[in-house]
């Protein structure tokens, strides 16, 4: 298997270049569907069945498995979208310098798409039937919270024993066994406009009310318990000499334990249930759309399997926790043994310096393929 992957490294990089050089930001349905079309063709060429789930607003999702698969117990989840707008590829296309590859989405997570495909190819080449024990969900909207694919992932994860999530490994090669939960909220404040010079007393400032809310929200921070509340974006008002009649705040919530979700939501609701500026109105919308991925005994057991595979192929496997969110939260919340960061090694995701460590492309693909085989045993 190792020899097969090493002999195909140039083919893997060629496919990666093709994928990276397609703009596929979360709002670029055309680009994502082009990625999906390329991957569908690749999987069908090796005998897999591909179900294309049409989406009107977002890119289409793909559900892939072998026709001989019967009650597969492993789900593999990977996203096709990136955070970059259309035109990014033109300004900085795929390139290789030294032992690294660069380009928009190269590590998050187009390298992972290549890795999954070649893990399936490697299993077939080595005459292992473990490729029949997996269902692949390739979704199109992870970078914006998976609004259209969350229910799909949950439905396909039902009755599965293991979930391998293909976010990239950390810079030091660590896998991810815990993630903080995430919530996104919007606070809409309505006031009453008035000229600030002629009749300010008739106005009711939405911005003033929002200022009270921002202070109260930030007071909810408890970093010692892993709770963070951040008002990261505000907007409001129409002119400097007008008492504002509207203001909006966008709020990011992070929690470490599932039990923290309901209490923090209730505190948000309480803050927004009353006003400090008479005559204003406050509306809170949003949800905790990703519960924390906690490191459970089941996850520990899955990690041990991956560690043993790593020992066999000479890859040091270690794990870590991270504050970022991913689709791993959905499978973990269902009680499924979940390990994230199963993709190749790289860093600086979501930036112009995003990179892939090229040697890890074949190395982590071998780790993935042999983990699938080990779980089948």
Automatic annotation (TrEMBL):
InterPro entries: Bact_exopeptidase_dim_dom, Pept_M20_glutamate_carboxypep, Peptidase_M20, Peptidase_M20_dimer, Peptidase_M20A. Keywords: Carboxypeptidase, Hydrolase, Metal-binding, Protease. It holds the Pfam family M20_dimer. Residues 177-278 form the Peptidase M20 dimerisation domain. Gene3D superfamilies: 3.30.70.360, Zn peptidases. One of its GO terms (molecular function) is carboxypeptidase activity. CDD domains: M20_CPDG2. Transmembrane segments: none annotated. PANTHER family: ACETYLORNITHINE DEACETYLASE (PTHR43808), BLL0789 PROTEIN (PTHR43808:SF9). This is Carboxypeptidase. It comes from Sutcliffiella horikoshii.
């Amino acid at each position: 298997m190792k020899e097969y992957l090493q002999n195909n490294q140039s083919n893997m990089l060629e496919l990666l270049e093709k994928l990276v050089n397609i703009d596929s930001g979360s709002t670029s349905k055309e680009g994502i569907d082009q990625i999906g079309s390329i991957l569908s063709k690749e999987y069908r060429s090796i005998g897999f069945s591909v179900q294309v789930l049409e989406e009107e607003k977002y890119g289409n999702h793909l559900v892939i498995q072998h026709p001989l698969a019967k009650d597969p117990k492993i789900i593999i989840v990977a996203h096709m979208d990136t955070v970059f707008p259309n035109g990014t590829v033109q300004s900085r296309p795929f390139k290789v310098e030294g032992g690294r590859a660069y380009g928009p989405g190269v590590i998050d997570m187009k390298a992972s798409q290549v890795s999954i495909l070649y893990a399936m190819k490697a299993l077939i080449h080595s005459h292992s039937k473990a490729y029949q024990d997996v269902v692949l969900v390739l979704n199109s909207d992870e970078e914006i919270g998976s609004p259209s694919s969350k229910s799909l992932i949950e439905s396909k994860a039902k009755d599965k024993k293991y979930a391998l999530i293909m976010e990239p490994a950390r810079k030091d090669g660590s896998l991810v066994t815990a993630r903080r939960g995430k919530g996104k909220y919007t606070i809409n404040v309505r006031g009453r406009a008035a000229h600030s010079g002629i009749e300010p007393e008739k106005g009711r400032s939405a911005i003033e009310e929002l200022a009270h809310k921002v202070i109260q929200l930030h007071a909810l921070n408890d970093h010692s318990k892993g709770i963070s509340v951040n008002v990261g974006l505000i907007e409001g008002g129409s002119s400097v000499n007008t008492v504002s009649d509207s203001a909006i705040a966008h709020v990011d919530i992070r929690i470490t334990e599932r039990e923290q979700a309901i209490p923090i939501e209730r505190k948000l609701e309480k803050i927004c249930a009353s006003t400090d500026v008479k005559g204003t109105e406050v509306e809170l919308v949003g949800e905790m759309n990703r519960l924390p991925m906690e490191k459970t005994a089941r996850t520990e057991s899955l990690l041990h399997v991956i560690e043993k595979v790593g020992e066999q192929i000479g890859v040091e496997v270690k794990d870590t926790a991270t504050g970022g969110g991913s689709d791993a939260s959905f499978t973990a919340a269902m009680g499924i043994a979940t390990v994230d960061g199963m993709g190749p090694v790289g860093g600086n995701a979501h930036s112009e310096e995003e990179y892939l460590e090229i040697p890890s492309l074949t190395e982590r693909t071998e780790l993935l393929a042999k983990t699938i085989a080990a779980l089948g045993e």
